[in-house]
Structure prediction request, 408 residues.
Amino acid sequence: MDLSNNTIERLCRIFGHLGAIEKTGVEFVSSAELAGALGATSYTVRKDLSLLGITGFTRKGYEVSSLKKELGSKLRLAGRRKACIVGLGRLGSALLDYEKFQEDGFEIVAGFDRSVNKLERIRTHIEVYPVGSMKDVIKEKGIEMGIITVPGEHAQEVADRLTGCGVRGILNFSPVEVSVPDKVVSVNMDFTNALRFIAAKLGG
Amino acid sequence: MDLSNNTIERLCRIFGHLGAIEKTGVEFVSSAELAGALGATSYTVRKDLSLLGITGFTRKGYEVSSLKKELGSKLRLAGRRKACIVGLGRLGSALLDYEKFQEDGFEIVAGFDRSVNKLERIRTHIEVYPVGSMKDVIKEKGIEMGIITVPGEHAQEVADRLTGCGVRGILNFSPVEVSVPDKVVSVNMDFTNALRFIAAKLGG
DNA sequence: CTCTGTGAATGCTTTCACAGCG
DNA sequence: CGCTGTGAAAGCATTCACAGAG
Prediction:
């Protein structure tokens, strides 16, 4: 499909928000309401949805559960996806147990770290392994996505290893932009840069 | 200044990357090299810099340390900024000690949580307080930025409280988009949505 | 030559405006 | 009416192309 990244990102957020609406029992939602929850405009929401061929009801808006279902199937967010985390420092081990992931269909099924020491100390119900066993574990468990929480110096090396093992999606929390093969999708989340951005916008 | 968010974000990343270059002792860097480290193009980098009135040297590129200094002052990234974290669960307490922040001029000077229990259990060298004392602590310490790591249900309420206390910048890790007064800058980092985005781009 | 600096051109995204529908 | 759906217009961001400088 030829959706822009912006559109995909918004659609994913809509998908997430629909889960919340579903719980309230509300049946219909208008593009304006979705827009409000997203920080977008109603036209943008309508256009985004129409790009997927999704259509709502005059005077009522979109039907929550069927919209969620359609988004789920069109964006392939319906099934469960397996992910692993590389780097079990403070952040990595916090993410190991981040419940939101599991709720949303993303299963963290393995953690990796270089330090055997760390592996021994960690308290979690998820299995942890030394990086050496990455290839075997990833193949065996069918892991599709990797989350990088190692220091910047090692991020590229870890990304290479992950893609070498067949991982096609990478969420990189290190401050270093990693480069990956064409077919691999990678997203960077650099906390420090987010603070810089805020500081820059604040001025003064 | 009238820079676009994209430009500001890239400039902040350049600023961060210059720190890394500085350590290697290299003196000059070309727009193409910066672009490589950023995943952008050399024209974009040159244009971004020229929008700030920053200029390089023919045949040599930009002088690393003076570029860093200029960016630091133009984007107001030079000084130290104080921040607090609200919500000391796994993620929040991991961020309390996230060294990268401190290295980059962002000082986490306080953590807040509703649960006295949690406050007692936490092991960190940063001072932690019950949310009730937010106003006093923020004023007293001159905190400018707030990091929200509470569950989505409470994110808006925390954002309101923070802005009510005079905080002007918010980094929100909850999956809920918070709405803030006009003058306040807020950035959302939704991990789950990042995974969704990756999954959607992967397709299959 | 090899790099920067930048107006002009291109290509995206968002916004608008309004027809259509219940 | 109050909503969606969408071509057309406007607004932005990126890319290009090339002059300028050492």
Q: What stands out?
A: The domain at 5-74 of chain A is CATH 1.10.10.10 (Arc Repressor Mutant, subunit A). Residues 4, 6-7, 40-41, 43-44, 47, 57-60 of chain A lie near DNA strand C (CB under 10 Å from a C1'). Chain A has two domains: 5-74, 81-193.
